[in-house]
Amino acid sequence: MSTVGDKDGMFFEQKNFEGGPWLIKGGGRYNFYSNGLRSIKVGKLCKIKAWDNFGTMKSYTPGEYPDITYDLRDIKLVQALDVDCDYSVDIKFNHKINGIPADDAVEIASGANYTSVQIPQLNPPDAEIVCQVSIRETAWPGQTVANGSIYFKYDSSNNTISYRKTEGWPNNCEIVQDDVTGFTITLNSI
Description:
Blueprint: E1 9-12, E2 22-24, E3 29-34, E4 39-42, E5 46-52, E6 57-60, E7 63-65, E8 75-82, E9 85-95, E10 115-120, E11 128-136, E12 144-155, E13 160-165, E14 173-177, E15 182-187
């Protein structure tokens, strides 16, 4: 039988922890396109949030769940969080600059997977989180080409994250919300 680490989760294709398994590493975001996940184990320092294709979210605290067949029909998105975090903002970067290879443009490889930023429990729970975005050239002297702030806010009534740009957001960048927790920041020019 498969064991799960303290900060991880593990999904199985069948009830009672059979089939699979798929390891969900702590601090990660995973996209699934399967209606065949039927059981889950959650490590003692982890919390799993899963969304289905219809936007329904289910949270799993540490423990074993031998039958999740009727919780979510078609699991689409999964986050593995530290047990003391409420949610995660998932960000990826992109660019639209001719002549620059995608993987050379930014430190977090452009067009790569999402990077999760876990947010601890807030007081009040609907407080905004400010995110400072600073994009620099990788070649010497590392000139800053975009710099500004954006505000994220978690809505516990529908388990979604929204954003608010201010006048400080750089004109040469755009942000697009990809799904309930995912955002893509694109550098359009230098």
